[in-house]
Amino acid sequence: MSDNDLKDKHGTTGHSWDGIEELNTPLPRWWLYTFYACIVWGIGYAVLFPSIPLLRGATPGMLGFSTRGQLEEKLTAVETANAGINQQLVSVPLEEIAGDGALNQYATSAGGAVFKTWCAQCHGSGAAGAKGYPNLLDDDWLWGGSIDAIHTTITHGIRNETDPDARYSQMPAFGADDILENDDIDAVVNFVMSLSGTPQDAGVVPRGAEVFAENCVSCHGEAATGDRDQGAPNLRDAIWLYGGDYASIHETVQNARFGVMPSWGDRLSEAQIRAVASYVHQLGGGE
């Protein structure tokens, strides 16, 4: 069909550019019907499913479908399926979990999921920690590395204000509170460095030992190996939570540290706490 024939059949839109006229050719019927079908489908979807945004939330839809509700159903189904083994996990003594192959496998698997959801933000996805956040892969524990001790730490946390049973200790700020002069702080810092490495100034180490004996042994012990009942670290093992260089140790003695771990007893179920305690315990540093 020629252009003239199409012009005679459909006419033009009245637009013309340089003598070229725009034909008023209708859309193909298949395309038009598909377009109408999409409109109908869109209206139906908007009526049946949540879709139209409001000031708070969206229209619920006639079917009452909810992605959150769907997720809750799946979570409930999983909890129901695991109810039996979770009850077993809660009922057995903590130290017996590792001896039960199936239960231990479940606990470490579930605990790993709990750890990656709630703990990895501070301790890292691999549990190696960071400055100010303990490495859970080694065998150095401020409050004890038995599964019971780990369970207690997770349940109640450390130095938080929400749990009256939280583990609590406070190192004095020897400099900020004018307990020690700067020369004494310098000496005791060098003494502490000498216990696991090379001091910055070996000449003041003897004086530092005296300062340590007068001010630090009540928590760290005469041998400087620490005291888990107080959360006082071992100063001889070259494992440092905030750094073992002169500046870091000086900052610790001068102003003290006050790391806080939240309590999880009011956020996680007992089964989840036992699971993550088992997971942490078997990472390599549990006792």
UniProtKB/TrEMBL annotation:
GO biological processes: oxidative phosphorylation; proton transmembrane transport
Pfam family, one: FixP_N
UniProt subcellular location: Cell inner membrane
Main location: membrane
Role description: C-type cytochrome. Part of the cbb3-type cytochrome c oxidase complex.
Known partners and oligomeric status: Component of the cbb3-type cytochrome c oxidase.
Name this polypeptide is given: Cbb3-type cytochrome c oxidase subunit
Taxonomic lineage from the root: Bacteria, Pseudomonadati, Pseudomonadota, Alphaproteobacteria, Rhodobacterales
